[in-house]
Amino acid sequence: MTLRVGLSGGIGSGKSTVSAQLASLGAVVVDADAVAREVVGPGTPGLAQIAERFGPDVIAADGSLDRPALGQVVFGDAQARRDLEAITHPLIRRRSQQLFEAAPDDAVVAHDVPLLVELGMGADYALTVIVDVAEEERLRRLVELRGMDEQAARSRIRAQADDGQRRAAADVLVDNSGTLDDLRRRVDDLWSGRIVPFREHLADGIPGSAPGAGSAGEDERLRARVEAALGRPLGEDVDPGALDEPGVRHGLRRRGLLVLTGDGQAAAEGRASGASDEVVIASADPASAARLRLGVG
Ligand SMILES: CC(C)(COP(=O)(O)OP(=O)(O)OC[C@H]1O[C@@H](n2cnc3c(N)ncnc32)[C@H](O)[C@@H]1O)[C@@H](O)C(=O)NCCC(=O)NCCS
Ligand SMILES: Nc1ncnc2c1ncn2[C@@H]1O[C@H](COP(=O)(O)OP(=O)(O)OP(=O)(O)O)[C@@H](O)[C@H]1O
């Protein structure tokens, strides 16, 4: 089972820098901006639809998409941006799915997607990583280091979620307000401290202890985390369908919890309600023995 990590951040936050390092550490990176380019390449149906909606002014002399021209249109006009997204997002989703499926079974797939929060995609990932830098610093980097026009950068920032909304969606915040060296160390820590143990944990089918094997305090804390994710107290039985709801799954993962089938295998997405007549909730932290066994009511 691949471990899918969502990576996002505002424009200019350092996502590309982080995803390049994750790739060098062994992750398979699926880059939504690159996919977005591919699906509107010369001769594609995507490009034809854009030409139909936005007219010849956004097509360059060589027949390719004039990206700066289209950017000028859509980042100043929310309806035009929605129209563009209605064309491109289904194509981007389909192509990304193919790339996910092509990844080796035991891979860590890092999905670098600028609009993860805006599109409510948090529940798609085992871990959501947000690269965090205050807006004014991102603006400075975009203008000074990438030579972007300040007004153009501001209008893209306005088209995106704000820093608070992104932070609220994060399982892990990677602060990138320091130097590139600071960032490199943080990403190394993220890889060795969170991602690799998480993957090993999944691959092993969560070794070790039976439900109830944690200390009493640990088991109690686990129960409280599950109840917080569900938004209600747990009875003896739980409808596993309730655990499959995207908001709940996301809430469980944000609290570092994994849903397993009764035999201890990690439940695949949307399969907590599979064949088994019970589910087990475990802490994603390999050091914790706490397990909660829930009968299927
Ligand atoms: C408008 C386009 C042609 C401008 O192209 P350009 O080469 O100037 O920018 P590029 O695609 O490299 O994007 C750079 C950054 O702009 C921001 N951005 C791009 N699209 C959007 C959008 N729809 N809403 C908010 N921000 C966006 C992201 O931070 C992205 O990383 C292009 O961004 C586009 O086709 N956007 C629609 C597809 C999309 O939503 N892409 C985002 C990834 S899902
Ligand atoms: N800690 C840092 N200190 C200084 N410069 C940085 C730092 N992190 C990233 N940068 C630079 O800031 C710019 C933006 O970084 P990067 O391209 O990785 O961001 P991004 O989030 O991928 O942007 P986009 O949203 O446009 O895809 C780049 O020029 C990058 O080299």
Automatic annotation (TrEMBL):
ATP binds at G12, S13, G14, K15, S16, T17. The keyword Repeat does not apply. Its EC number is 2.7.1.24. InterPro entries: Depp_CoAkinase, P-loop_NTPase. It is found in: Cytoplasm. Keywords: ATP-binding, Coenzyme A biosynthesis, Cytoplasm, Kinase, Nucleotide-binding, Transferase. Gene3D superfamilies: P-loop containing nucleotide triphosphate hydrolases. Pathway: Cofactor biosynthesis; coenzyme A biosynthesis; CoA from (R)-pantothenate: step 5/5. It catalyses: 3'-dephospho-CoA + ATP = ADP + CoA + H(+). Its main location: cytoplasm. GO terms for biological process: coenzyme A biosynthetic process. GO terms for cellular component: cytoplasm. It is an enzyme of class 2 (transferase). Catalyzes the phosphorylation of the 3'-hydroxyl group of dephosphocoenzyme A to form coenzyme A. Belongs to the CoaE family. HAMAP family: Dephospho_CoA_kinase. This is Dephospho-CoA kinase. It comes from Serinicoccus chungangensis.
